[in-house]
Amino acid sequence: MSSVTISIYGAEVKCASCVNLPTSLETKEWLEAALTRKYPDVSLQFRYVDIEQDEIADADQGFVEAIHNDEYFYPLIVIDDEVVAEGNPKLKAISEKIEELIK
Prior knowledge:
4-stranded mixed beta sheet; 3 helices; YuzD-like_sp; single chain; alpha+beta; 37% helix; DUF1462; Glutaredoxin
């Protein structure tokens, strides 16, 4: 696989159950730093989708609606259209998905 796209869905305001955790944007920045160091030879693309914006791309609409309907906590981490983590994401689960894609 030439590139892996990691989408982070979230909002500036933390979810009620995430008060002691980093914001969604801080989570995106942390993942970008950690995964870029761990996979220097893999083209990783990071996207941040603000779920509170009025204009949401069609491709993101389903995940945004699911968050608004309380089906997922945010930040929601999606790789290759598959939910990999939510709320308090674990680097191990995200790394395992990347490993699976780059084999």
